[in-house]
Amino acid sequence: MNRIYMDNAATTRVTEPVFEAMKPYFCEKFGNPMSVHSFGRESRRAVEEARRQVAAALNADSREIYFTGCGTESDNWALRGAAYARGNTRRTLVTTTIEHHAILHTAEQLEKEDFKVVYVPVDEFGIVKLDEMEKAITEDVFLVSVMTANNEIGTIQPIEEIARMAHAKGALFHTDAVQAIGSVKIDVKAMGIDLLSLSGHKFHAPKGVGALYMKNSVHIERLIRGGAQERTQRAGTENLASIVGLGKAIELATADIDAHNAKLIEMRDHMISEILTRIPETRLNGDATRRLPGNVNVSVRYIEGESLLLSLDLKGIAASSGSACTSGALDPSHVLLAIGLPHEIAHGSLRLTMNEENTMEEVDTVVEALVEIVKRLRAMSPLYHAEKQ
Ligand code: PLP
After folding, report:
1. Among 39, 47, 350, 374, which lies 20 to 30 A Cα-Cα from 218?
2. Residue 179 Cβ contacting ligand 1 at under 6 Å
3. Better pLDDT: 381 or 95
4. How far apart are CA 104 and CA 93, in angstroms?
5. What's the CA dihedral at 184, 322, 99, 74 to 10 degrees?
């Protein structure tokens, strides 16, 4: 069976050029980057080259990039580091209701530590309500954290505007750009970003490596203490090969964003229009245009997202019914509830996320499969028959 992978928001494969770049750093060039001898220096040079590549992709300086263990660590560091560095004078964090759990669960922990957190709502398309954001940012706010793009419904936020609002009140601005790298052009200087999280495995680097961009003039507390790695800000022997992979992958992912997006938008919009016209009682979740070029998220009435997933999987098609981190739990996605979907519709949602390796032919195959599956599942659904009588 020819399998089709449309779960690129959960993770991506390591591509051959990235793997090739990493290979020497397992068996041949294995020195500890902190060692002063030639083995160490060789590894140090590779880490610094990767740092330069990440910085170039964001229009940052190399000294502003810190390697971490994953996007989750970068998010934890940004929020907690800012809270502990500024907590004497400012006690409030402002974020949104649709952030990833890496942000939301960290925010909940800060609340337990007597910080205040304001969760700004989004509109029906998943765009942050700017008037409410402006009201929420007071002189007590140490950090505003808003994701660049949502992992479930793909909505892209007006982060430049929000960064301006944060700065007007003396707050720092952090963005979780984990889903955005390679699809949204990021210029940390022009966009007024103080802190930015990214994660390698979303753009063809391996799992378990990430980075935090921290503007030169910004100071936050360190989270992981120990050795003097990452200019003393993040201890732990560097994940050498993965860092090399991250550098190569971000260079490739940001080389030609316009061409990459043009192809994906065509596939995305074709898939959305086919699903909405050929399958009755479906709806698109998220904004039609302010969305990641590879993201399709639809709700199919009278059907459980999990049943759709299993049926697609039997046909070799990989999708997701929510974010990878929440599927497996039966709670409906907090993001779909935040855009106002009733529970029963949120339960019937399906996310298909493409990247440049997918083809229009695959899109058509997936649509055909979905048309057939929905027809079959609805035919078996007592709920569907009860409603239709
Ligand atoms: N933030 C967002 C928006 C994500 O989509 C993810 C992963 O799904 C993360 C953070 C966590 O990244 P990682 O898997 O590297 O910990």
Report:
1. 47
2. yes
3. 95
4. 11
5. -70
pTM reported for the whole predicted model: 0.97
99 lines ligand 1 (CB under 6 A): no
- Cβ atoms of 148 and 184 closer than 8 Å: yes
How far apart CA 173 and CA 193 sit, in angstroms, is 6
> What does the mean pLDDT of the chain come to?
96
Beta-strand runs (E) in the chain? 4-5, 65-68, 92-96, 116-120, 141-145, 172-176, 195-199, 210-214, 282-284, 295-300, 317-318, 349-353
- For residues 76 and 102, the answer to whether their CB atoms sit within 8 Å is yes
324 pLDDT above the threshold of 90: no
pLDDT, tens only, 43-88: 999 999 999 999 999 999 999 999 999 999 999 999 999 999 999 9
Work out which ligand 1 atom sits closest to the CA atom of 325. 8
pLDDT tens, residue by residue, 3-31: 999 999 999 999 999 999 999 999 999 99
Distance CA 341, CA 131 (A): 22
> How many A from CA of 197 to the centre of ligand 1?
9
Evaluate whether 346 touches 336 at the Cβ level (below 8 Å). yes
The protein residue with its alpha carbon nearest to ligand 1, atom 14, reads 71
CB distance 72 to ligand 1 below 6 Å: yes
pLDDT tens track for 204-233: 999 999 999 999 999 999 999 999 999 999
Q: Which of the residues are catalytic? A: 325
- Greater confidence (332 vs 287) lies with 287
Q: In angstroms, what CA-CA distances link 303 with 192, 255, 363, 375, 383?
A: 43, 40, 21, 10, 9
